[in-house]
Amino acid sequence: MNADQTTAWPAGVVARYLTVGGATVDLTRGNRTYPTDDGIGENRNHTTATCTGCLATEEFSHWRTIRGTYSSWEKHDPGAADQKAREWAQQHAEKCRALPRPGVEA
Fold it and tell me: What gap in Å lies between CA 7 and CA 30, rounded to an integer?
């Protein structure tokens, strides 16, 4: 086990993937308020995967639109978002050769 594997993860990181180049792809969860016509805003939960080398980022919403025969509705499904974020992070980590950026904990 090298020193990078024993270093504490940054606050908020829920999963981490090591890239070919030695950087990491970090998964975090967050909330964002989107503006709405009524001025109140809509809070949206998401899981984000961010590469600490090349800074590629993908965001996966915790909400899914379920379409029925006559209607559609929103379902809160953070597990599905986490799974998609993990798949993206794994694929990115297998290819990314960017070195860790200076000052970023890998």
Answer: 23
Please tell me whether the overall predicted TM-score, pTM, comes out greater than 0.70 for this model: yes
Beta-carbon contacts of 72 under 8 Å, excluding residues fewer than 6 positions away, are 65, 66
Could you give the C-alpha distances from 72 to 52, 64, 66, 68, in angstroms and in order?
38, 10, 5, 6
Domain range summary for the chain, segments of one domain joined by +: 3-95
Distance (Å, whole) CA 100 – CA 93: 12
Here the tokens at position 73 are 């509705």
pLDDT in tens, 27-71: 999 987 767 677 776 678 999 999 999 999 999 998 888 888 898
